[in-house]
Amino acid sequence: MRVLVIKLAALGDFAQAFGPFAAIRAHHPDARIILLTTKPYAPLARMSPWFDEVWEDGRPDWTDIPAVLRLARRVNGARFDRVYDLQTSARSSRYRWFVGRRAEWSGIAPGASHPHANPARDAMHTVERQREQLEMAGIREFPIPDLTWLAADLARFGLPARFCLVVPGASPGRPAKRWPVERFGALAAGFDLPAVILGGAAEAPMAATIRAAAPSAIDLTGRTSFAEIGALARRAAFAVGNDTGPTHLLAACGCPTLALFGADSDPALCAPRGPRVDWLRHVPLAGLEPDVVRAALARLT
What we know:
Elements: E1 2-6, H1 11-16, H2 18-27, E2 32-36, H3 42-47, E3 53-55, H4 65-77, E4 82-85, H5 90-99, E5 104-107, E6 114-115, H6 126-136, E7 164-167, H7 181-189, E8 195-197, H8 204-213, E9 218-219, H9 226-235, E10 239-242, H10 245-252, E11 257-261, H11 267-270, E12 277-281, H12 290-300
Parallel strand pairs: 1-2, 1-4, 2-3, 4-5, 5-6, 7-8, 7-10, 8-9, 10-11, 11-12
Helix pairs in contact: 4-5, 7-8, 7-12, 9-10
């Protein structure tokens, strides 16, 4: 049996799909399972135990006709028996035409053999929505995903025995999702352990601002792989961050995690999930006081 799983982006959504990925593999233990994703998340997917193959050309620009045709030929030529569309977007639904009508389809594409037929699906948290979608496709067992593969040696960072994690960034296109970096600095300055700052290279100026307020903080922006983030999650005392991909990944890996929300995203729909997770929402997010965050972290830890 040949199975296609579609999950194109983004990191937070990818982390929240770990459970569905594990459930699909458990349901199809002998199938050849291929993930269709995009380049940023292909390395993470290839480390996991859930896929036999990972394709990273899953989102060509519609104006790039040769790239679209290459994807269409590749998908059609694979002759899949079943597709689990976990992206459930207008784009991914169109890929049903690439696959062909012979394949069973779980998702929201018109004519799907196993539609997620819940008119309230958009009001559900991502995790519950995907679980219900898979249940409607006949999957009944949802094992807790084993993430021990998401690990790495952290010796090169020379970290202290005790530290916490701070994630001050978020999508550049959604600045309202960011708690002011000065407030992260004030928060870190009050910790009794050093804060390790995570994020992409573009967040380096934020890290500098935090370190100006909390000199013991350690800047790892632009320096960590997905596997190293997983390893940091297991060693850290706790994590605090905006509603952004690394925060979701830390929570999934078991780090006690506090996520901060403003008006731009709703925790009822997309809050991080993990063994020890909590969230705060304040509108506007800039008005959230560090003392309130510190009190929430004390309750969490």
